[in-house]
Every structure is written in C-alpha cells, then in structure tokens.
Amino acid sequence: MDTIFALATARGKAGVAVIRISGPRAFAAAESLAGRLPAPRRAGLRHLRLGAEALDEAVVLCFEAGASFTGEEVAELHLHGAVATVSVVLRALGAVEGLRLAEPGEFTRRALENGRLDLAQVEGLSDLIEAETEAQRKQALRVLSGAVGEVVEAWRAKLVRAAALIEATIDFADEEVPVDVSPEVLELIGEVSGAVRAEIGRLGAAERIREGFEVAIVGRPNAGKSTLLNALAGREAAITSEIAGTTRDVIEVRMDLGGLAVTLLDTAGLRETEDVVEAIGVERAVSRAEAADLRIFLLDREEIPLIAPRDGDLLVQGKADLHPAEGLAISGKTGAGVDALVAAVTERLTERAAGAGVMSRERHREALARAIRSLESARDEVLRGGERAELAAEGLRQAARALESLVGRVDVEHLLDEIFASFCIGK
Ligand SMILES: Nc1nc2c(c(=O)[nH]1)N(C=O)[C@@H](CNc1ccc(C(=O)N[C@@H](CCC(=O)O)C(=O)O)cc1)CN2
Ligand SMILES: Nc1nc2c(ncn2[C@@H]2O[C@H](COP(=O)(O)OP(=O)(O)OP(=O)(O)O)[C@@H](O)[C@H]2O)c(=O)[nH]1
Ligand SMILES: [Mg+2]
C-alpha cells in the first residue's frame, strides 16, 4: 500500500496550511522532517528540516493506524500557510521513498475501504465540503453522521426476518400442520415498502436542498424582470433597458434565502415575436420556467400571464412606484416590496424543504425503486403461496441487496471513480 500525501487545506496564502500523510510510512516520513514525533493524538511543535535546511516551524499531529480518519497511520503537518512553505514541504515529501501525491478523494477512498465510512457517508462528506448554505450543511452533516446507514439497517433487518420466516416454512414443509407465516411476512413487506416509498417521496426536497431550488422570474417584455433580478442580487447581473425584448438568454444568480440555496432565473419577456433570436429566448424562458421549482409572475396591471401559474407560484404586481397596487407589489426601481417578495419566496421554499429526507441523489432514487420492485414481486409470490416460497425469499434478498447498495455493501465498485472524481485533492 502506497503512502500518500497532499495539502488538505485550500491552496493559496493562508494563516495555516495542513499537509496530510496517510499510509504505512506516514510516521517515518514525518519523522524524517520533524525528528522525534509527538505521542499519537498530541500536537507537538517541531522544526521541519531537510538535511541542514530549515523548512518551517510546524505543529505535528499523528494518528495511529486503526484510530485515524483513513484507518491508516496518519501524520499531519500544520505549516505556516505560505505558498513557498507548502511547496517546499510537498517537494520534500515527494522525495521520500514510497511516498506519492494523493489523487482527489483518495484519503476518503481509503476511509471507505477500511470501513471507517460507508458509501452514503462518503457522499455526505462530499456534500459537506460543497455546502454553502445552512440547509446544505445540516443535511450533509446528518448523512456524514450515518443517517442513511441507520434507516437502511432497520429496513434490512425486517427483510432478513421476513426471509427467515419463509425459509423456515420451506424447511418444515413436510410437517402435518404447517404454520402460516404469510400474514407476518406481508406485514413486514408492507412496513418496509411503505417506508421506502415515503423516503422516495422526500427525496425530491432533499435533492433541491443539495442542488439549490430554481426560481424563475417570468412576465411580458418590459415588465421589469431584469430590474427585479438586479435588485434581488444586489448587483447589475442583467442588462435592463426600455426596449422590449432586451433579455434573451436565461440569466442565473445564486442566492442564499433563509439558508436555502436558490438559483434565481431572469428570462426573456414572453410574447409572440418575428425576431428569430428573441423567439429562441422566449422558448428558453418557457422551458426553464416550467422546470423551475417556483415562478414569480411579474405582471403589468390586470395582465393574464402567458404561461399558467401553478399552485404556490407568486403573482406580483410590478412597477408599483408608477401605479397604486394591491397584494404583492414591488418596484425593482425603488426597492419597495422586494423584502416582502423575498420573504414570500423563502416561506414557500422553506415549506418544501421541510419535507426532505436523508436521501438526495438519483443513485438513491434508483436503488429505492429497485427495492420496491423486488418487494412487490416478493409480495405477489407470498400471496400466491405454496410452491413459490423460494421465489418470495429470493425477492426479499434482492430488495435487501438494493438497499445495501445505498451504503455500499454490494456492487458499487463501478460508482467509486465517479464519486471520488468530484472530491478535491487532500480530502
Ligand atoms: N486536523 C484535522 N481536523 C479535521 C480532520 C482531519 O483529518 N484532521 N477531519 C477530516 O475529515 C475532520 C474530522 N474528522 C475526523 C474523523 C475521524 C478521525 C479519527 O481519528 N478517528 C478515529 C478516532 C476517533 C476518536 O478519537 O473518537 C477513529 O475513528 O478510530 C479524525 C478526524 C475535520 N477536522
Ligand atoms: N418606474 C419603474 N420603472 C421600472 C421598474 N422596473 C423596471 N423599470 C423600467 O422598465 C424598463 C424595462 O425594465 P427591464 O427590467 O429591462 O424589463 P424586463 O422585464 O427585463 O424586459 P425584457 O428583458 O425585455 O423582457 C426599463 O426602462 C426599466 O428602467 C420599476 O419598478 N419602476
Ligand atoms: Mg430583461
């Protein structure tokens, strides 16, 4: 097994920079620079030297194999965060026999291989590092702490019990008065499918928290959509003008609304048009608005929107500084009503986010759907009864395997490269 090392903190000038070394030669490598190492899990201040050359004065922290993040020997060098310091220490480590630079996510991959984290926790760790808002941080931390593994284990235990009940009747099929286990088996299958379906129902909201909700501003040309976007963004993200048909491309602005990641979309004004380029813009506006989680319809007075609002969408009167208005009314120009609009959007999205479960990816949705299919076929076999018991038990085992793939106990080798490719070096 190679010993790997990398800068674990962000690149560039910083107060402190941490280089992490993991593998069988981690302590030996750290010792070659730092001299006598502090006791494991005790920080010690050391002069790092390469021969006679002083490299830095650093804090050194060691974790023994079996009690570290990766499960291997880990040594950390907490350096002064100068670009030149990091660079000279990385070079010195690269010259140590048996050491090489880590690939992206390789420390975490080792943690997975050594059973320190399950696959869902690895995804949670990846999400945690990507987290920019409070909701993302909370959701990722829950997953990193093993929330997915806990639900999966509870479901799996029920399926294992149901399969065992069936197996028992197969083994004792010759008895005079066979016990009918099917009510209990059906009950267990029903409980697990109900819970799995509920989790599928909560997955969309969790996915939105992870990726961000999309909120589209739509309305007729000149309604003031781009002006509103700029007011919300606090900067001139979109061009505005008195010429109808100014916006053509969809303009995206990322925001944090009450701890939720939101991508706000400014779109082309909706109208029939001879202008080929504008028409493409209108087409994009319609399709992005339809796909968005929420639409803000910016209306002229008494105007009927060109696409249909859905339940929960916001109908807002624009240019409220020019005309008296009722209900939700804003002026992108003066800023009047913008705070109330933000509050209304935040309230609606917060309501949806409240329905989030612990699973948040397409991979999870697929595994849950596979589990449901196997549970349905198992239930059908139980209901048919008699000779089909073996098939019912097999369906239950398949469902259990689908659930286990969530935490990576089976068939996930092919997923790993993709998952780790998105990690930074040093994680
Ligand atoms: N300096 C430093 N800070 C860090 C990390 C790190 O690697 N180094 N982490 C990196 O992500 C996070 C903390 N995660 C960690 C997870 C497990 C262990 C660890 O040593 N686990 C052992 C001992 C557990 C214990 O003492 O209770 C184990 O699980 O056996 C360390 C850090 C955030 N802060
Ligand atoms: N008085 C007033 N004028 C506004 C307001 N919002 C926008 N305008 C003006 O209305 C015109 C159109 O504004 P835009 O924000 O470009 O309108 P838009 O909806 O993005 O238009 P398209 O991109 O063409 O669809 C500009 O001259 C703005 O200055 C407002 O709240 N009050
Ligand atoms: Mg515009």
From TrEMBL:
UniProt subcellular location: Cytoplasm
Q: Provide any one GO MF term from the record.
A: metal ion binding
Limits of the TrmE-type G domain = 212-350
Q: List the InterPro entries.
A: G_TrmE, GTP-bd, GTP-bd_TrmE_N, GTPase_MnmE, MnmE_dom2, MnmE_helical, P-loop_NTPase, Small_GTP-bd
Q: Which domain of life is it from?
A: Bacteria
Annotated binding of (6S)-5-formyl-5,6,7,8-tetrahydrofolate, by residue: 20, 76, 116, 427
Role noted for this protein? Exhibits a very high intrinsic GTPase hydrolysis rate. Involved in the addition of a carboxymethylaminomethyl (cmnm) group at the wobble position (U34) of certain tRNAs, forming tRNA-cmnm(5)s(2)U34.
**Tell me, how does this one assemble?**
Homodimer. Heterotetramer of two MnmE and two MnmG subunits.
Quote the protein name from its UniProt record. Answer: tRNA modification GTPase MnmE
Primary gene name: mnmE
